[in-house]
């Protein structure tokens, strides 16, 4: 599939393919579709980032609230999105010891209590040790600093998801 084919997608087709590049936020993908045609995958990503950056703090917090707890209830119940399940598995979060699971659960709880949204990190670029280290470190941040850091991580996740979709549907980066 070429970028030209992406640009020719109907709204519904575009949403079906790219609807979860931001976890459980298909409205962002829907809004970005209105900017097509895109000259490249990178331009499409930039439209997503510009949309996110234009949101007020409450909107950015909403994006973070759409993310699951790492190694949390959704993972154990099997209700994670396919993308999150794969990312958490790759980071080693599906094979935690009971002690690691307990520690991560406690840290996740402390984080949500302090900031009001789940801890978000690009699991695909991390492992369970780095995740726990980052979680401990970021618990020391102030809320505005952590909101920016969380959104930065959302953008990393988005980038990797778009790149994966680009490879899987063989998009080219030019018309």
Task: Summarize the structure in short.
With about 180 residues, the chain is an all-alpha fold. The chain has 10 helices and no strands.
Write the layout of secondary structure elements.
Layout: H1 3-8, H2 11-18, H3 26-33, H4 41-54, H5 57-65, H6 73-77, H7 82-90, H8 98-115, H9 128-138, H10 143-168
Give structural notes.
65% of the residues lie in helices and 0% in strands. The protein is mostly helical. The chain has a domain at 67-145: Oxo-4-hydroxy-4-carboxy-5-ureidoimidazoline decarboxylase (UraD-like, Orthogonal Bundle). It contains 10 helices and no strands. The N and C termini lie close together (11 Å).
CATH-level-2 architecture of one domain: Orthogonal Bundle
CATH class of one domain: Mainly Alpha
The count of β-strands is: 0
- Number of H- or I-type helical stretches: 10
CATH homologous superfamily heading of one domain: Oxo-4-hydroxy-4-carboxy-5-ureidoimidazoline decarboxylase
Shape: globular
**Distance, first to last CA:** 11 Å
Helix-strand makeup class: mainly alpha
Helix content: 55-70%
Q: The CATH topology of one domain is what? A: UraD-like
Using only CA atoms, what is the Rg?
17 Å
**Largest pleated sheet:** none
Q: How much strand content do the residues show?
A: under 5%
Q: What is the average of the pLDDT values?
A: 94
Encode the helix/strand succession as letters.
HHHHHHHHHH
**Which residues form runs of ≥5 with pLDDT under 50?**
none
């Amino acid at each position: 599939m070429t970028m030209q084919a992406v640009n020719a997608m109907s709204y519904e087709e575009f949403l079906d393919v790219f609807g979860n590049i931001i976890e459980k936020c298909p409205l962002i993908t829907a809004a970005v579709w209105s900017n097509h045609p895109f000259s490249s995958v990178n331009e499409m990503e930039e439209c997503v980032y510009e949309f996110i950056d234009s949101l007020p703090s409450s909107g950015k917090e909403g994006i973070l609230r759409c993310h699951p707890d790492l190694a949390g209830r959704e993972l154990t119940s099997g209700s994670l999105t396919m993308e999150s399940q794969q990312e958490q598995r790759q980071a080693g979060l599906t094979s935690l010891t009971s002690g690691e699971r307990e520690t991560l659960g406690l840290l996740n709880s402390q984080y949500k209590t302090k900031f009001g949204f789940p801890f978000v990190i690009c699991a695909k670029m991390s492992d369970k040790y780095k995740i726990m280290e980052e979680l401990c470190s970021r618990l020391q941040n102030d809320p505005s600093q952590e909101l920016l850091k969380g959104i930065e991580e959302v953008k990393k996740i988005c980038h990797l998801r778009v790149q994966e979709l680009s490879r899987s549907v063989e998009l080219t980066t030019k018309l």
